[in-house]
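As a warm-up, study this chain.
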Amino acid sequence: MKPYLGEPQWLILILICMLAAWRWPFLKLHSPLRAAILLLGILSLGELRFGSKSDDMDLWVLIDRSDSVKATVQESFKEWKAILSDQQKVGDRLHFVDYAADVRFLEQETEPFNNNSTETRTGLAIQTVLSRVDERRFNRLLLLTDGYTTEQMVGVLQNLKQQRIALDYRLIETDTWMDYQVGAFRLPARVQPGQAFMLEAKVMGMPNGERKFQVRLGEQIVYEGQTTVEEGVGRIRLTDRLANTGAYKYTIELDSEGDALSENNRAEQWVEVGGEYSVLLLTSYENDPLAKILKAKGFNVRVVTRPEILDVSALSGVKVVVINNVAVNRVSSEFMEGLNFFVKSQGGGLMMGGGKYSFGSGGYFSSKIDGLIPVSMELRKEHRQLAVAMSLVLDRSGSMSASVASGSEQTTKMGLANEGAARTIGLLGDLDSISVLAVDQKPHEIIRQMPLLGQKEKLIQTVRKINPGGGGIYVYNGIKAGWEQLKKAEVGQRHMILFADAQDAEQRAEYKSLLTEMKMEGAKISVIGLGKETDRDAEFLKDIAKRSGGRIFFNENPVDLPALFAQETVTVARSAFIDQEVPWLATPGWSQIASSNLDGPEQVNGYNLSYLKSDATAAVVSGDSYRAPLIAFWQRGAGKVAAVTFPLGGEYSEEVRQWSGYADFIRTTIRWLKGADIPSGLFVDTQLFGNELEINFYHSNNWTETLAENTPQILISLGSTKTVEKLLWEKMKPGHYQARKKISAGERLRGVVQMNEIQIPFGPITNGENAEWARNKSRLQELEEISRLSGGQMRLDLSDAWKREGRMVDKDLTIFLLSVVLILLLLEAWITRMDLDLVALAKTQIKRFKA
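Now compare it with the structure written out below.
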């Protein structure tokens, strides 16, 4: 039992009284009696309590939402809540806390748990709750979990004891009989081309016997077989070799027939094949002239004509990426996102070539790499086509009410579609017109077709208030209503953007004749499908775009919707490609790339109209009235980016391809983008130990002096997040630095070691060992021991969770102190009236006692 103050701020009066006693001695505040009165009075104001807790109780219910139990928890949560609520007394408080890899305090039971569920961090959850408890009340913790935490609960028992809080628990039972799992999957992080390496996997489970498995490289099955499980463990060892540089994903999967938990039957891992840095060429041309030129100049080139299949692993072993006239909707979202870290942190080079499917025409305005490109693609009044009549047909079906995390905020799919509509209105010009319809079983007119002049802000606020409805989206009704609006517009160019859920688009009858009518009138439909190309209604949406002559986009992440609306608006509403010959005007800017002059052709056959960004340099501009950049470049972080706005192949490239300096221009630009090679004497090695990545950086003696002045920096990017994290080195010995980073199961990491102008990239690296499914018995024993020693126990009956075992009631000393103060005040008044000197009296009595 310990004394404490409920209102400790009153202690400041002690200092004030001491100052008053020094400043005004005549008050006699230094006398023992008056000092005691003041001190006891201040303690009563501060609500002095002794070893106490309130009669009321706070019950903190920590709910395990990790992968291994989340299905059971979802089914049982309402029942648990009802039991606990029924036993709650007046004055008691019930708190629900969800946790897995991180912790969330639950405000409403309807809130879905969308956090990372690949780990069970019970220790973190308990410590987080302990930091929030009100120590003036009686607190108790109830843990609902399967008991298999993925971390050691260091310091938990000590803090529970210190705060005198008991930890109760109830184990969530899952059917683990006949359960097999991939306990670990290991590959070397990096090998050389053609080098043989070993794939090792551990299979755990019961009962003993044979278990089938298959191994895939990407989506291709490379091995099928079976392993023998004896005494709960089976082992798989295979060898493979890879000829080409890059990063490759291996997946191992166990046969799930009769398995109690199929979720733990799969694991994946990456291996990086090193070698000479290459050029990754994304192109829409079957025989791209760039590939022939670069190969002839000694570059190792990988040509990709289907960029939709790429992910960030394609950037491994690559030094320069070239996007040559490829529309943004043909490039995977993950790959586009990965380019930012590739350029800015890993020091990669990026070049975009011109054409009708590039820059603004290709939908790159407001895309995930818009910030990397040295030219801007925004709308400008002086460079527009005829005014545009736009109709937005938005899905407001029941699925649009689903909650979505957008940055640090929570919104809905409908809210993001509304923001996309707002972006469209903001990007259109004053002479353009707009209509907006929200559609479920029938169209709802939000905005009738009207000019935007003077109406933008009002209309933007209107579309941001659209609410979801119910059922699915009746597509025909929506298109028909949108077309009726467009026909009212007195402009030459009519366009519709249809937004629909690719899993919930209905009403296919009669739409074909309607699209034929629209196409004959020159109207097109762009379709934004929320979902995947393989979804149930995707083919229906594809057919709408194809028959109308428009484009289609599929995207699984609703957060990207505003950018998709913006990209399509810019593509439709502006003359982004100038399809006429313009003179070539060189500038001194080329001298920053090469020492020789850039004597180009007299003219180019066409180019993408854009504008030079601040801090970028133009090497060539157009000789027309726009003076727009034809070749522009700049430095972005550690990397370099170039924009060549005229076509480098195919249509409108005749003049350029006949230019005698064409091949040298391409070679010089790529070499500048590629940057310096990694010098000898520097080496980065990575190894995974469980869920912890160990990164080792080695250097030879001739680098010691340089590194003494500039310690190398290590940056990492996890998954598809935009966040770049800096790790700290630990110097192990001369010539050896080491850093560590925890990686969750299935999480992918890319990184780079930076030193002055040198970048050494590594990854991607994936944790193929899932601790969430390991079911280590020692974790159960650890939980039982912590609970027992804290004064808690296993609660088979949840109604017992409110029992006050070990509860100590606070003793409020305020009344007692005030009583003592009153007595002392009376005593002090009597002494003053009698004019007694207690100090002198005490001294006299002491002398008499000694005598």
